[in-house]
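Reading a protein record of the kind used here takes little practice once its layout is understood. The reader may check this reading against the record printed directly beneath this paragraph.
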Amino acid sequence: MATVKIEDGYVPSENEPFMNDRQREYFRRKLVGWKADILREAQDTLVALQTENENHPDLADRASSETDRAIELRARDRQRKLTGKIDAALSRLEDGSYGYCEETGEPISLKRLDARPIATLSLEAQERHERRERVYRDE
């Protein structure tokens, strides 16, 4: 995909063709930036975990430190899964399917994509999916 120039402060609008070059570039930048932030945070976590002093003489301090580490590692695992979803969204941008609901094929609203750039379902399809999930979970 050729790089498209978009001005600072550009926000996709309903008044322009859906998933035009500017919108695709806007979302590509948003996704790439988000992934870079996640990877930077993961690196910071790795450095912090490697440099943390594990010689806590107090048993309570050691337990607290282990709990903090476990929480941090769980959060990093969620972030790792998120980077996979970001990569999938970037692939959809490349193949032209980004921004369209996987269930209905209809465009996903720009507001939804701006808030959740990895969205694969329209708001309506997502709500139906969550209702079905709740019904199966309650049975």
